[in-house]
Structure formats: C-alpha cells, structure tokens
Amino acid sequence: RAYGSCINMPLAKQGGESVPVKQEAHRDRAVDDDDDEEVTPRKRVKREESEEERYAQSRHCPYLDTINRQVLDFDFEKLCSVSLSHLNVYACLVCGKYFQGRGRHSHAYTHSVQMGHHVYINLHTLKFYCLPDNYEVIDPSLEDIKYVLNPTFTVEEIDHLDQKKRVRALDGSTYLPGLVGMNNIKANDYMNVIFQALAQVPPVRDYFLREENYMHIKRPPGDQSFILVQRLGELVRKLWNPQNFKSHVSPHEMCQASVKTSKKKFQFTEQGNAIDFLQWLLNTLHMALGGTKKAGSSVVYDTFRGGMRVHTRRLPPPSENEEEYRKLLQQEEYQEKTSESPFLFLTLDLPPPPLFQDEFEKNIIPQVPLYELLAKFDGATQREYQTYKESFMKRFELIELPRFLILCIKRFTKNNFFVEKNPTIVNFPLEIDLAEFLSSDPAIQDKHPHTTYRLVANIVHDGKPEPGEGSYRVHVRHRGSGQWFELQDLHVTDLLPQMITLSESFIQLYELRHDQPQETS
Fold it and tell me: CA distances (Å), 126 to each of 88, 256, 302, 426, 455, in order?
C-alpha cells in the first residue's frame, strides 16, 4: 500500500535523484493556516462578549437583596471563623461571619454553596464579590457598608465635627458622634474610660481621624508597637462615625493590641489600674509615632507634655546631737539641688482618711478642695519622700503648662497585704486657674498669657479597690453643646454639671482656654 501511494506522488529531482513531494501535507498545512486566521477573531469576539457579560453581571447582581445589615459587625478581629487565619479574610454580608479565601476549595466558597449566602466583602481591599460565581459586585448601594468598615474624614468634616447633632443608627437608636457606648468584653472598663477620654481631646482626635498622618512613619523591623497606633486610629474613627449601623462600638481589636504590645501586663479579662494603663499607653504611642525626648516630637508630647522644676534636698540620718545634725546639713551633699523634669500628668496626694468611726458607726468621709491638693506645686510647700535607704525633701513648681492637663488623684495605696482606697471627696470647680502655681520667673510668666483650664473629662472609680470589685465610668463634656454626659460601658446618659463634683474622681482632663488671659495680681 505504501508503494502504491508513492507511485502516484510526483517526483522532484534533488541531487540527480527523484524524491516524492508531499502535496497533501502542504495543502493540509495551508488549510490549517487559513483556519487559524478565521478562528482567532471568533475567539476574540467571544472573549470580549464574556467580559461585557461579566461587567453587566457585576453591575446587576441578583443577590443584593439578601444582604442583612443588622448582623454586620466589623469591630471584632479579622480572623477566619474556621481556620483562624488573618490572611485574605472575607465577611459574609448575609450572616456576618468571617471566612478565608474565595477560591473553589476555600472556606468562603464552601459556606456559599452550603448555606446559599452569595455576597461577600474583602476586609482588606474593601471589594465585594459574589460566590460561588466568583465575580466582583459593583453597586453604589454598598458604599454604606464600605464606610462602616473603614470610615474616612476630610479636613472640612473634621472642622465641623463638634457641631454635629444627633444622628439615627440603622437599628433606630439615636446617638451623638463621639459619644457612643463601648462594649465591656469582660473586665476592660478601665481601658474603655481611657479611650473615651482621649477621643474627646481635639488634637489627638484630629490626628487619628486621618490615617495619612501616621501611615508614612517608618518603624524598625520587628516593631510590634505600631499596631497600637493603627488600632487606636480605627477605634477613634468608629467612635466619631456619623453613619454607624449601631449606637455602640466594641474595642475588641484595640484591647487585643494592648494585650499584645504590653506583653500581657494589661488584659481585658482582668481589671487593672486606669492611670497605669494611661501612662503606658501615652508613652507607647509616643515611641511608636517616632517620638524623641524633644518637646513636640509627637502628637502625645505636643498635647500633654508640661514641665516642672524640682528642688531636692537630701536629709541626713537622724541624730540626737543637734549641733552635729546642723553641721551635716551644711555639707555639700545635703544642699538643695534643682533640676527640670517633663511630665505627662500630675499626681495629687490625698490626706489620709480617718481611722475611727463616728457615733453612727460609720467612717466620716472627709472632703478636701482641689486647690489644697495643687499646693504641692506652688514652689514653697515641701514634702518628705522616703526610699529604702534615704529620705529627701522636695518641692515643685511649674515652668511649662501643657495644652491639655491630666491630673491623677492618688486614691490607691498598696502595702504588703492588700490595696487600700482613700474615699476622700475632692471638691473641684469646672474651671481652674494655675497662675499661682506657675514659676515667678518673668520669662516663664511672659510665655504663659493664658493659665485657665476647663474640665473636659472626669474618670471616676466606684466600689472596692480589689480587681473586679469596683467599676469605672467617665464624665465627658460635649464641645458643641456644652452638655455633660456619663458613659459607663454601653450606657450613655445626660448629666447635670453639679453631679460631677460629688463623685470619687480619679483622673481629670483639662483643656487650656485661650479666650481668658492670666489674671494679674
């Protein structure tokens, strides 16, 4: 058969010999080339049609009416509910659960097939997808979900933020932006009051409302403290979001970042001391924002840092001979030394409470005015401070007043056995003048034409001093209306200014007023 096929093929001379030419092969190859030229445009047309159909499909998703905004909660940590992974996490917009991936073998794909939930959002890229068809959904009606997940503020919106009136949430409740309840997960009320108070400080609030202010700060590799900055920014933006779906916020991610950054020193499963947490938070934020020892190197130092002059005199050991004691006082090591020190908050010492009960078998709760406690910083009042080996006499005077002043009333004392709480009531006005506590140096006086402070927030501790026995709440002044509110976990109630001074105040936050000059005596 092969011989017969070769007979019918024409012969071509090559090097004096006859070689058969495969015309059919050439003809087949020519046909294939023609087919390729005709098939390629058809494939392109089909591809273009599929892209157009896909674009039309993304514009007209039939499952948008299945989205349930009532169950959406983006306050919790962005972890897959199955694999507990934080990579490539999607939120189901029908049931609110988090799942990883959207491929054919991913948890989100499996959930969409099993439960019939089709619309998802990528928690990182903020893009919407329909599963299991796996196409992107583009619809302007989904912008409110994107804004709740990641609120953004312009400079103009921040300038008019204090003039905002009550807005209505999706569940029908009304709230003031910035004055929303905060969920107490277990025992994180001491964290909540600090977050609420810092959110009322305009320089700190305005700084964290715009993510562009701190996203370009370079941190060394392996630094874990910058996550605290990111989480605090997210929490502040959610507190001031005028388009929330609900009238409360959960600080779960911020609490998790605090536990991780503090190496479990502060936990939301065990109540801690609010002033210790505030001190750690301010210093950690300052370092994470690239702050140095210079004033104004971060928003923390620019807002809260002040300065004082400390006069220290070491005391000699007690002696029965007065002449020897006087000679020791004249030595150089027992002379008064002066140093300058910055501060982020001032600690006020309470007088000791009475030990004996009255005729009604109840301890008398003493009262003391705030100016009596502030006399510690008048530059003349001396107090003895003891260490393990030595004793010192110190007196303080203020040389630099911060824009926002933090006062801590020292109520808790710890001994070898337990923690005691001083129940003394501090009588304080809503405005204080620190002119008499400022140094008499003319250069320092000229730098401070304004010395009047107005109360912004008042943190109160109620109950016993043991962890878990007491509770924290905060009084906050709304800047737009001047009205006072009390915030305790999820509860936000109106408050009369006269009721604030009757509480066991623990931490106070004051704002320097620039509309009232210093009174000259």
Answer: 11, 23, 34, 50, 40
Reading the block at residue 314, the tokens are 């070491």
- SS3 state at 129: strand
Nearest in space to 251 (alpha carbons), one of 198, 291, 173: 198
Rounded to 5°, the CA angle 149-154-160 comes to 110
Phi, psi (5° rounding) for residue 103? -75, 180
pLDDT at 292 over 70: yes
Share above pLDDT 90 across residues of the chain, in percent, rounded to a whole number: 64
Question: How far is residue 124's CA from residue 66's CA, in Å, rounded to a whole number?
Answer: 22
Looking at 399-516, list the stretches that DSSP marks H as alpha helix, in order from N- to C-terminal side.
442-447
Question: Hunting for tokens 């709760």 — which residue is that?
Answer: 365
Give every strand in the sheet of 306-315, ordered side by side.
337-343, 306-315, 391-400, 383-386
CB 422 within 8 A of CB 411: yes
Beta-carbon contacts of 10 under 8 Å, excluding residues fewer than 6 positions away, are 20, 21, 23
Q: pLDDT class for 41, splitting at 50, 70, 90?
A: very low
d(CA 244, CA 164): 14
pLDDT, tens digit (0-9, with 9 covering 90-100), for 313-369: 888 887 767 788 788 888 888 888 999 999 999 999 999 887 776 665 566 788 899
pLDDT digits (tens, 9 = 90+) for 407-416: 999 999 988 8
Query: Per 3-state DSSP, what percentage of the chain is helix, strand, and coil (rounded to 5)?
Result: 35, 25, 40
CA count, 13 A, side-chain hemisphere, 74: 26
The helix (H) or strand (E) run that includes residue 11 is strand 11-14
Handedness of CA 284, 289, 291, 297 (dihedral sign): negative
Place of tokens 């390629």: 40
Tokens of 182: 């905060």
Taking alpha carbons only, the member of 128, 83, 136 closest to residue 110 is: 83
CA gap 250, 185 in Å, rounded: 8
Six-digit token pair at 393? 């006499």
CA distance 228 to 287: 11
CA distance 404 to 454: 9
Tell me the two tokens of residue 20.
């058969």
Question: pLDDT digits over 89-109, tens only?
Answer: 999 999 999 999 999 999 999
pLDDT band at residue 12 under the 50/70/90 scheme: very low
The Cβ of residue 450 has, within 10 Å, a number of other Cβ atoms equal to: 15
- Mean pLDDT along residues 465-492: 92
For the chain, the C-alpha Rg in angstroms (whole number) is 35
